[in-house]
């Protein structure tokens, strides 16, 4: 079974990590497969962007395959270990310099090499299940995969703290720190898709789609708007660019100023004689009365 599955849909190339039994740990074959796919899509006009994600919800990428490195060391095959790290670092640099948008969907554990194939990209999407860490110091190693470049740029002493302690960050923490660019709550979106009637809503949308072109939104409101504008002319309104409001009339040429609505003339004539509410009447003997109308 291939360790990396590739496909292109609607101009977007997909890299799916497919080593679920090893939590998508990177070995030499996986790194070479990713580099070959990126090289193929680099100059392909049918590919506008690249998305890398995991084929299992357990982890995005647990880093380098420590078991394979240990077995190579026990065999005395230092050339295999050297080749793995050389190809892995070349992959990280290629991702950082890739000419097309590189998007990483980091759902699950992303440690060590998992950050190497994600944080160097343009877009890093974390979820509520994401776990970020650089735990190399816990096994007597130092933070690699370009960590000396991105850790000092996290701000303050956070990068030094993460590099020395191997502390873990959640998806929200990673967004705040700058390791991820955005957070997506997959659990909430899954609930939305499981709501009763969701499929029925999609069917209704497909049924009315052919008729949407024959209906103009807001057309039924136009006669009502004309009646309202004729009954309550707007005075002093500033017209939009083009000099018209879209409803016609002479109001587009009115002077600028505060927007006020005038009642009809018959109401203005009757305004001075209107009775006021008892609570708003002036106190007796104060000389006040009903104010004159406009």
From TrEMBL:
SUPFAM superfamilies assigned: ClpP/crotonase (SSF52096)
Occurrences of domain Enoyl-CoA hydratase/isomerase (ranges): 13-188
UniProt keywords, alphabetically: Hydrolase, Isomerase
A UniProt-annotated Pfam family: ECH_2
GO molecular function terms attached to this record: 3-hydroxyisobutyryl-CoA hydrolase activity; isomerase activity
Compositionally biased tracts (Basic residues): 217-235
Region (Disordered) residue spans: 212-294
Biased composition (Gly residues): 285-294
Catalytic activity: 3-hydroxy-2-methylpropanoyl-CoA + H2O = 3-hydroxy-2-methylpropanoate + CoA + H(+)
Enzyme Commission code: 3.1.2.4
Biological-process GO terms, alphabetical: L-valine catabolic process
Record protein name field: 3-hydroxyisobutyryl-CoA hydrolase
